[in-house]
Amino acid sequence: METARKRQIAILGSTGSIGTQTLQVVEEHPECFEVYAITANTRVDELIAQARKFMPEAVVIADETKYQKLKEALDDLPIKVYAGYESICQIVESGPIDIVVTAMVGFSGLRPTINAIKAGKAIALANKETMVVAGEMINALAMEYKTPILPVDSEHSAIFQCLAGEMSNRIEKLILTASGGPFRTFTKEQLEHVTKEQALKHPNWSMGAKITIDSASMMNKGFEVMEAKWLFGVGAKDIEVVVHPQSVIHSMVQFEDGAIKAQLGTPDMRLPIMYALTYPSRLTSSFGRLDWSSIKEFTFEKPNLEIFPNLRLAYEALAKGGNIPCVVNAANEVCVAAFLNDRIKFTDMPRLIERAMDEATYILKPTLDDYLETDKEIRRIVEEWIN
Ligand code: MN
Questions:
Q1: How do 149-151 and 99-102 pair as beta strands?
Q2: Ligand 1: distance of its center to the CA of 230 in Å?
Q3: Run of H or E residues at 99
Q4: How many whole angstroms separate alpha carbon 251 and alpha carbon 108?
């Protein structure tokens, strides 16, 4: 790729799984990218090491108790150091930044993403919760400020790649593939007793804890249906989830003539990250290549909505619209944290999420304040049910 100047990147959540892999992409092509800012939630030691290596203009730690340590560790370098969530919301607006990689976990991605769009920054969207909670609002803002939203999620990147050169052709159907997670073949009874250690062992992808639990419960796929609806303007009834345990086909697009395009590859997030950063071009990579001799079979099956109710709940939330996807997201975040702390069972999660959907106050056209209020209120009541 020919670049007059290096693209200036801000990485929100740089110490997480997507964040560290984004830095590997930068290392792969230092002639194309420069890290302008990195932010982390609490992992200060990793953040210090990254800052010393990549020499960004600015670093931010959300956890203010870690500010002193960060500041002292970078004292000898010309790096600006900030702390607190508000600083993350502000750093994305810095003039030189071209693209913001939103790789933080959960609802916390919403406000920095909105600010980045308003500042005219391209968004490499890794934080799917932003689109789950407020897809309609994000799309309206992206349109108003003429900023592209480039998917990092592997399924959505696959669809995006299939759509290259097809922009004027109508999409008939999106086919999102799902690995099925570690409990794909489990019965309802078996699922009642699974441990967090089992849930944290994803068969194909290595990811952060929150998304790994979401994958095991199929909530991740539910969120991806919502994300696909807003990214590609396709109604939920035209988004089909197909379980493909080999995770080689990353997703597919069916056009109105019946043709289906698929994108395939190894399960390596660096590829979709790099594509989001270089779209519409591609760069060379040293990442692993698919070895066809090692692929014995491609199999496909329907997801089991009875055993994994979260996927059904996600479709219901999309149909209800308004603030209900925000309700599902908030309830799910509380449930995942509680499951990881051994406070609830795996199968309690969909029960609590469904109850939150039933009891939430419905808002048809939520404002940003409504989303913040819904998020806070649902967290409070689901916490109460768990205690
Ligand atoms: Mn995905």
A1: unpaired
A2: 15
A3: strand 99-102
A4: 27
Per the structure block, which two tokens stand in for 124?
Answer: 């490499």
Contact 103, 150 (CB under 8 A): no
For residue 340 the two structure tokens come to 């990881």
User: What's the 176 CA to ligand 1 centre distance in angstroms?
Assistant: 9
Q: Helical H runs in the chain?
A: 17-28, 44-54, 67-73, 85-91, 110-118, 128-144, 154-162, 188-192, 196-199, 209-216, 219-232, 270-278, 309-320, 324-340, 348-359, 368-386
DSSP conformation class of 95: T
The whole-number pLDDT of residue 182 equals 94
**What SS3 state is found at 241?**
strand
- Among 321, 384, 376, 382, which Cα is nearest to 354's? 382
pLDDT at 64: 98
* Spans in the chain with pLDDT lower than 70: 1-4
Nearest to 15 by CA among 69, 51, 56: 51
The Cβ of residue 152 has, within 10 Å, a number of other Cβ atoms equal to: 26
**How far, in Å, is the centroid of ligand 1 from the Cα of 224?**
7
Q: Please indicate, yes or no, whether the overall pTM of this predicted structure exceeds 0.85.
A: yes
What is the Å distance from ligand 1's center to 65 Cα? 33
With a CB cutoff of 8 Å and minimum separation 6, the contacts of 83 are 60, 61, 62, 63, 64, 66, 67, 70
Q: What is the DSSP string of 31-62?
A: TTEEEEEEEESS-HHHHHHHHHHH--SEEEES
Angle between the N-to-C axes of helices 44-54 and 17-28, in degrees from 0 to 180, rounded to the nearest 10: 10
- What's the 124 CA to ligand 1 centre distance in angstroms? 14
| 155 CA → ligand 1 middle, Å | 5
Scanning the structure block, which residue is given the tokens 């003539």?
A: 257
Q: Measure 384 CA to ligand 1 centroid, in angstroms.
A: 31
Write the Ramachandran bin of 338: left for phi over 0, alpha for psi from -120 to 50, otherwise beta: alpha
- List of domains in the chain: 7-151 (3.40.50.720), 156-320 (no CATH)
What is the CA(328)–ligand 1 centre distance, in A? 18
| Two tokens, residue 42 | 């609490």
What pLDDT does residue 202 have? Answer: 85
